[in-house]
Amino acid sequence: MTQRHILEFGQDPCMVILAYEALNDWILGATEEADRKALHAVDHGRRSEHPFSLAYALSFAAWHFMNRADLEAASGFLTEAIELCESHRIRIFLVMARVLESIAHAGSGELEAGIERIERSLGGFRSTGAALFMPSWHAVLARHYAAAGAADRALQEIEKARAASRSSAECWCLADIECAAGDVAAISDSGVDPDERYAAALDIAARQHAAAWRTRTRAAIQARAAAAPVPE
Q: What confidence tens digit (pLDDT) does each residue in 92-120 have?
C-alpha cells in the first residue's frame, strides 16, 4: 500500500503527515509527542526505501530538534540528509538542509560567517521556486543581524518575514515574527516599542494556542528585564 501511495503522491503520505504533526505539536507545546512523531516520520522514510521520502523526513526531523535546542540530534539528521540528497540529487531537501545547517552554524558562535551562510543558503532555497517556511527563516536571520548589531538589516528582515507570511498565507509563525520584531526593536532606534511587539506576539500566541512561541516570547521579555539598568 505504501509503495502505491508513493507512486501516486511522490512521497510517503504517512511520513508527510507525521512530519507536519511534529511541527504542529511542538508549537502547541506537546513536545514529547512531537519528538515521537518526528522520529516516527524518519522511521517511515527509512522503511519506504524511497530516498525522496527519507530526505523529507530527515530534513524535518533536523528542524524539529533544532527547535528543541537538541543540536546533537539535529546535526546527525542534517549530515544524513545532506549525504542522501547529494547522492540522489534531491535538490529541494538539500537546500533546505543547507539552510538549517547555516542557521545552526550562526548559532554556534561564528555569527558573521553564519549570517553569510544563511544568506547564501536562503538564496539557494529561493532558486528552487520554493517559498514555504521563508517567513520563519527571515525572522531567524533578523535575530542574527540584531545580535551582530546590524539593526537596519535586522529591521529589513522583519519586514521580509511579514511580507513572506502575507504572500504564502503562513500564519503558524506570526507570533515568533512579532517576538523577533521585539528583539530587534530592543537594539534599534527605529522608534518601535519592544514591549508592544512582545505584547502582539503573546496575543497571537494566545489566539493560536502556540505554547512554544508564548514560552519564547516570555523568555525574551525576562531577558530584556534582566539586562535593564538598575535605577540608582
A: 999 999 999 999 888 777 788 889 999 99
Cβ count within 10 A of residue 69: 9
Spelled out in words, what is the top-level CATH class assigned to the domain 1-128? mainly alpha
**How remote is the C-alpha of 195 from its chain's centroid?**
23
Residues 6+ apart with CB under 8 A from 230: none
CA distance 68 to 209: 18
For residue 85 the three cell numbers come to 540528497
Residue 196 near residue 204 (C-beta atoms within 8 A): no
Cβ neighbours, 10 Å, residue 38: 28
pLDDT score recorded for residue 1:
44
For 37-55, the pLDDT digits (tens) are 999 999 999 998 889 999 9
What is the C-alpha to C-alpha distance for residues 97 and 14, in angstroms, rounded to an integer? 21
Separation of alpha carbons 190 and 142, rounded Å = 14
Residue 204 has pLDDT above 60, yes or no: yes
Cβ 120 vs Cβ 102: under 8 Å: yes
- Give tens-digit pLDDT for 126-152: 999 988 899 999 999 999 999 888 999
